[in-house]
Amino acid sequence: MKKFSEAVVSLAIFFSLVSLTAAQEMRIPDSAAARLEEVLSKRQVDHSIIQTRGRGDVYQKALGAVPFVISADGSGSSVVIATKESTALIVTNHHVVNHPFFNDKGQPFVLLLFYDPALVNEPFERERVRNCQRSHDATGWCKAFQQSIRPAQVLGSDVAKDLALMRVANVPRDLTQIAPGQIDAVKAGDEVIVVGHPLELLWSLTTGAVSAVRRGFPTGTPQQSARSTVIQTQTPVNPGNSGGPLMNEEGRLIGVVFAQGVSNRIRAPSQDGDPRASDVPIPAAGLNFAIGVNEVQNFVAGLTAKMR
């Protein structure tokens, strides 16, 4: 295993990709705007974010680096891995952006909602969101909302590792990123933190521990189409956490939450008593997974190489 100092990805490579792909911000088509109104309707950012305890220090630092992702038929989480000037590179899961919107040039994109304290505890009412997008409303909430919504160009993805890379131009001011940790330093029993948007509940925090670090673990669709380093954790995650960061106690990125299915199967008798019954899947409670930060780095490095 390579040491962190020998990792194939560096911020210099990230920034070279940013420079190569910089472009003007895309206009949000009407279909994407309508989807935005639908998803955000009646959602809100909890006011308790401004007063945290326990692992609140990590939480506070991560807020600006975990945008909410909205695709044509789903939603999820993401993590900012690099910024330069007004551009950012952001990682999420492939399945989160697998059904994107398309602009007038046929380029795939999704919508991101970035954290802004001015949005705290203000519900996203459908009409308010619609009017704010279509007018030049200069009120504080509307201005903050307009600055928080950005289209993100999907640069590429890896189905087997369930990863995707996005680029965002004209990012919000003071955007933060989550620095990478070292996969070799992750051990069973380590405390870990997840920040994301489970069930579209914006900016939620869960904590737990590392259950194991599994190298050469089968991932991908169909099953076992690839072998990857994954972090097994009992940290509670739900649909919508996908693509968000798994962080260590220092707030460094050690993995990206992804949809790795694991189940136990038992032989159960059929209704007519036939002992040759088919397998019955038993849910694997408390078994959640994140693709290791080394896999994330390798993915971005490979995509970078193809684009240079």
Mind telling me which CATH architecture of the largest domain this is?
Beta Barrel
Order of helices and strands: HHHEEEEEEHHEEEEEEEEEEH
CATH superfamily of the largest domain: Trypsin-like serine proteases
The N- to C-terminal Cα distance equals 26 Å
The strand count comes to: 16
Number of distinct helices? 6
Low-confidence stretches: 1-9, 20-24, 275-282
Specify the CATH class of the largest domain.
Mainly Beta
What's the domain count?
2
**What is the helical fraction, as a range of percent?**
10-25%
Radius of gyration: 20 Å
Task: Describe the overall structure.
Helices cover 20% and strands 31% of the residues. Residues 1-9, 20-24 and 275-282 have low confidence and may be disordered. α1 packs across α6 (293-307), α2 (30-40) packs antiparallel against α4 (126-134) and α4 crosses α5 (140-148). The protein has two domains: 4-178 and 297-307, Thrombin, subunit H; 183-293, Trypsin-like serine proteases (Thrombin, subunit H), CATH 2.40.10. By secondary structure, the protein is an alpha+beta fold.
